[in-house]
Description:
The chain is 3% helix and 42% strand. The protein is built from one helix and twelve strands, in the order βββαβββββββββ. The mean pLDDT is 90. It is mainly beta. The strands form two sheets. Strands 2, 4, 5, 6, 10, 11 and 12 form a seven-stranded mixed sheet that branches. It has one helix at residues 29-32, and strands at residues 5-6, 11-13, 18-23, 38-44, 48-55, 62-64, 72-73, 76-77, 82-87, 96-102, 118-119, 123-128. It starts with a strand and ends with a strand. It is globular and about 40 Å long.
Amino acid sequence: DVRLVESGGDLVPAGGSLRLPCAVPGFGFTGRFSEHATRWVRHAPGVGLEWISAIDGSRSKASYIEAVRGRFTIPRDNAKNKLYLQKDSMRPEDATKYYCAQYSGSICYDFIPTDLASWGQGTQVAVSS
């Protein structure tokens, strides 16, 4: 099984920024993020698992849910073999646990959590108002 590793969870003030790295130990960036579509997912209270960003292995274009569009991006660092969730203009409702997850293939499909083959353990984010 492939395990992803998220980190960077912290307490930040409303309006602040935070960057969450996602890494796949043992795999080079070109061998994993370019071949497997990746989503960032969060656990939304009262909603359950909610996808917030998605990008195909071809990295043609990232997509975001309306609640985070314009505030969150998913940059990558080839030298460090990591994909990030960059969170700006954070709001109290962004406080929850965030997960990085990948499909077994290079295409993102409609979000069904059980379709994602590899998950991380999650990282907790808190926002002070």
